[in-house]
Amino acid sequence: MQWTLVVPVKRLARAKSRLSDTADDGVRPGLALAFALDTVTAALACPEVADVAVVTDDARAGRELAALGAAVVPDEPGGGLNAALAHAAAVVRAARPGRPVATLNADLPALRPAELARVLQEAAQFPRAFLADAAAIGTTVLAAAPGQSLRPAFGPDSRARHRASGAAELRLEAVDSVRQDVDTGDDLRAALALGVGPHTAAAAALLPGRAPVPGQ
Ligand SMILES: Nc1nc2c(ncn2[C@@H]2O[C@H](COP(=O)(O)OP(=O)(O)OP(=O)(O)O)[C@@H](O)[C@H]2O)c(=O)[nH]1
Ligand SMILES: C=C(OP(=O)(O)O)C(=O)O
């Protein structure tokens, strides 16, 4: 079963505010874009993924992600993350009603296609399912079978909120790259240790106190 992924991307100028102590206003938008480029590149390389739709209001992110092969859905509701996801899911569902849909956060710069494939294969066993983030508080993937509405409940404590909504929590081992979202400087260090994609490696090398990562 092949999935349509919906990837939300906040306006780059406002994105990743919790990284402001690690990356100042001059470099943070480029870092957020690099995360999204590496996330979408890995998602498009996953055999379980048919297509990727990015929902964003950011012109530069839309342009650069479209160049990778993603579709771009304008964030018309402008009502925050959950409204953007519900809107984009409705748009992609109208085009292909028989396909399962999953959201994937755009801040997974270490994402590996084979680990995402395992997550999506497991999610296909349930009407709705989700994967908790590395901190075990948030959510990085929320998946819905054909005919099931996504009902996204991202934000504070989204792991508990998705569980309370009846979605199955995926209890997979060794899918660290799908769980490792980057909100803070510590998260970025953890992602770099897992091994990030080339856009993030280049952007992270520009941060103060960071040497380029050899081989990336
Ligand atoms: N389209 C869209 N995407 C959003 C919106 N808010 C957050 N996102 C995306 O949703 C995912 C998870 O969001 P967060 O991890 O909170 O990222 P963030 O909002 O950039 O980070 P902070 O500013 O530190 O809260 C990321 O891929 C964001 O780019 C929104 O209002 N619209
Ligand atoms: C929006 C979310 O992401 P984060 O915790 O990374 O802000 C979430 O996990 O629901």
UniProtKB/TrEMBL annotation:
Domain of life of the native organism: Bacteria
Annotated pathway: Cofactor biosynthesis; coenzyme F420 biosynthesis
GO molecular function terms noted in the UniProt entry: GTP binding; phospholactate guanylyltransferase activity
EC number annotated for this UniProt entry: 2.7.7.105
Species: Streptomyces cyaneogriseus subsp. noncyanogenus
Keywords (A to Z) from UniProt: GTP-binding, Nucleotide-binding, Nucleotidyltransferase, Transferase
Annotated catalysed reactions: phosphoenolpyruvate + GTP + H(+) = enolpyruvoyl-2-diphospho-5'-guanosine + diphosphate
Biological processes per GO annotation: F420-0 metabolic process
Entry function: Guanylyltransferase that catalyzes the activation of phosphoenolpyruvate (PEP) as enolpyruvoyl-2-diphospho-5'-guanosine, via the condensation of PEP with GTP. It is involved in the biosynthesis of coenzyme F420, a hydride carrier cofactor.
Name assigned to this protein: Phosphoenolpyruvate guanylyltransferase
Binding site for phosphoenolpyruvate: T139, G155, S158
Gene3D superfamilies: Spore Coat Polysaccharide Biosynthesis Protein SpsA, Chain A
Family named by the database record: Belongs to the CofC family.
NCBIfam families named among the record's database cross-references: F420_cofC (TIGR03552)
